[in-house]
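Q: Could you fold this chain for me?
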Amino acid sequence: MTVKLLADMYAVLEECVGLFNAGSSMASAPGKTAGIIVVGDEILKGQVHDINSYFMCKRLRAIGTKVARISVVEDNVNDIAETVKDFSKRYDIVLTTGGIGPTHDDVTYRGIAAGFGTELVCNDSLREFWSKILDRNMTESVVAMSMIPKTAKIVWGKAETPFFKDNELLTEFPVVNIQNVFVFPGVPQYMQSLFLSLEKDHFESRGCSFYTGKIYLSVDEELVVSALNETVAEMKECVFGSYPVVGDGAKYKTQITIEALSVDKVKAAEDYFKALISPKWLSPWLQDPDMSGPVYKFLQTTADTRLAATLNKSIKLVEEALDTYSPEGVSVSFNGGKDCTVLLHLVLAVKDRRNVSQPLQAVYFRPPNPFPEVEQFIQDTVDRYKIELTTLPGSIKEALEVLVEQKTRLKAIFLGTRRTDPYSQHLNDFQMTDPDWTQVMRVNPLLDWSYRDIWTFLRGIAAPYCSLYDQGYTSLGNKDNTRPNPSLAYTAEDGTQRYNPAWMLADDSVERNGRL
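A: Sure. Below is the predicted structure, expressed as structure tokens.
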């Protein structure tokens, strides 16, 4: 890719950002604005693929901060100075990546100093840090990476990929901060883990959230122009996008996106648009969403402090399991029930936050005579999140043995077990299967969750769940042993017996009253 082509691509991206927000109340949203500056000739020459700006855009959007512009600049002091000075005035937060190493073309600090009209000085904290990292004969490099703008300060973050020096594990990494500008390294694994460790205190727009809905259509966008234009004119508090999809293997032809500052506004816009088009044009296809946004947002905003603590513990257990056994070494037990649906979203959230690229592995231990609604929900979920699902019939003990034979790297399995489940009162967070079973570590992140916690969370993140729960079922087995919960029954005006949805069950102790 040529320098001009890549530069033009970013120019178009900047223009699209402006058009996307033009004339909309979202342009004046209460959250912070951010500008991203990517420094490096190697980006403009097409020698390195920039993934840092993509990562930051995703994370900033998830924490309520709007990215207004992205610019890529050469390793040129004047260009960096002018861009940083301009961005610093325009936006609440400015994030730079790249150009802070020890070589001749690492001039980001010099450019920022010039932009703010200050000089470079050797920072004692940085010099001490780099002296620990680098060998003693690399004094020149230590000094080079310690020269920063005089008025800057150091913000310490956590590096997910740590350094080792003399058997000492060093996980802290310095981020230079001058006014509203934060300078990140260009190495993605350092940049991303540092950003995650700093985002809550420095980049989050508290009290502001962006909510996005997506509508998938089986027709070309030309057919819905009139309906879309009417919806845009009527729903002025939303931002809309329309994206055609081409190719013989495409699952849908057009994707409509709707973004607003509340779920209700998104839903109202979706309903308005759908009422203007033929129902036959709606495609059932769902793209896999990033779950880290809603799950971590729920953690930060829920008023239920006990549930927040329980959720935080569960997330830590998921993180520990992934660190211990690796993403390739774990699988999620998913049978379509409410508990494992919560579990699935927790694992997906941690996976998405860490940018784990490989598909999530899951296993469905298929019971005899299953509900068709359950199997449909499982398939919809697999399609939605692009899960690698293994379906195994028979007893769980026998099926687990087959699973381990098929998945030779499997070391642990996530289960949605809660202490109120039969024979589960004394389980631990991590517990090996019984001695006469195939040996796999059982990971139980939901042991301390209550029935009420499950539904508060699922409804709080607007997660899809099996339709049977809206028909009065509260605990799902199979068609032979499961009925709607009689505690949810009521008599309708026409005299027929009906059932309230599962989330309306007031007494957790009767959760399994529908199970025979």
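A (continued): Residues 1-25 have pLDDT under 50 and may be disordered.
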